[in-house]
Amino acid sequence: LLSRENWTRRCTAIRMAGRVVVIGSSGFIGGRICKEAAARGNKVLGLSRSATLPPYLVSHSPDDEGANVTFEKADAGQPTTYTDKLKGADAVFISVGAEPVPNYFYKGGKAEAIHINGTVCTQAIAAAKNAGVPKIVLVNATMPAWLSTMMSGYVTGKAIAEAAAQHYAGPKSKVVCLKPGVVFGTRYVGEAQVPLPLGWVMRPLRLAMGVPGVDSVIGFLRAQLPYVFDGLLEQPVAVDELARTALDAAADVTNSFEAIGPDDIVKKSHKQGLAKLARS
Predict the structure, then answer these.
(1) CB-based contact 230:144 (threshold 8 Å)
(2) 42 closest CA partner among 25, 24, 19
(3) What number of other Cβ atoms are within 10 A of residue 242's Cβ?
(4) Strand 186-189 and strand 194-197: pairing?
(5) What is the pTM for the complete model shown?
């Protein structure tokens, strides 16, 4: 365990102010990354087609960290709409893509699913590298192998995105690929923004998965039938944990490329929570 002094030093380093860009800032995950980055003192530029933060994330507090966030319109699928905005950024976060659904849910079928979940991310990574951004964080996914038979476009797209992250990573542009499984939090759906508090289900499930004996069974199943259970029996990740880990990863990354799976996302997020306690 780190000493109180080392925890404090680490947390201070993580909170150092910089300029960050979030591509996909109006999304479920991207919006949280904007809020977390601003809360740590960064100047944040959020890019999306709507150029707004989701209404449920807007705070009306007089100390609202939103003062550090600006939003501009850009289309993640059209790099020319945002390339110039990446110059001078200390870090770029890429959180774009669609929900994991079968190909027939996409108007353009498998080809569109691959484009949205893979090609668009690849273009964003390349644009950030070409702009000289030193740290790039891609929000990707962990999934079971059998999902490729049901959602081949989604799975192929995510694989393309991760391959691009590895390809473009280097000493001058370090890339972190976050790979959560299920990401939960309160989602708001429809024009009426009806809240769906998925944490009520996912948090107890995660606690149950960590019970001694249960975790051993999960480990056994994953070892015996990896095709079925690998990527399926993963810890659900809270969206706020994912946002915290994204910021920590950008601050702490030392290797040219690093992939962080569900278990490590949760662990890293909890370490950040302990660091905050050490500072108080």
Answers:
(1) yes
(2) 19
(3) 26
(4) antiparallel
(5) 0.86
Contact 240, 36 (CB under 8 A): yes
Query: What 3-state class would DSSP assign to 205?
Result: helix
Whole-angstrom distance, CA of residue 41 vs CA of residue 28: 21
Q: Is there a contact between 33 and 16 (Cβ–Cβ < 8 Å)? A: no
Q: How far apart are CA 83 and CA 148, in angstroms?
A: 32
Query: 241-275: per-residue pLDDT in tens?
Result: 999 999 999 988 788 999 999 888 988 776 655 45
* pLDDT tens digits for range 154-172: 999 999 999 999 999 998 8
Residues facing residue 166 across a β-bridge: none
Q: How far apart are CA 193 and CA 48, in angstroms?
A: 19
Determine the Cα–Cα distance for residues 86 and 184; give it in Å rounded to an integer: 29
The Cα-based distances of 148 to 100, 232, 262 in angstroms read 11, 13, 19
Which regions of 64-217 does DSSP assign to beta strands (E)?
69-73, 91-94, 135-139, 174-178, 183-184, 186-189, 194-197
Q: From the CB of residue 77, how many other CB atoms can be counted at a distance below 10 Å? A: 14
Which of these, 30, 230, 253, lies nearest to 142 by C-alpha position?
230
CA distance readout (Å), 114 to 37, 79, 149, 150 = 29, 17, 14, 14
CA-based nearest residue to 248, from 159, 176, 141? 176
Q: Are 155 and 199 in contact (CB under 8 A)?
A: no
Beta bridge partners of 195: 188
CA distance 156 to 139: 15
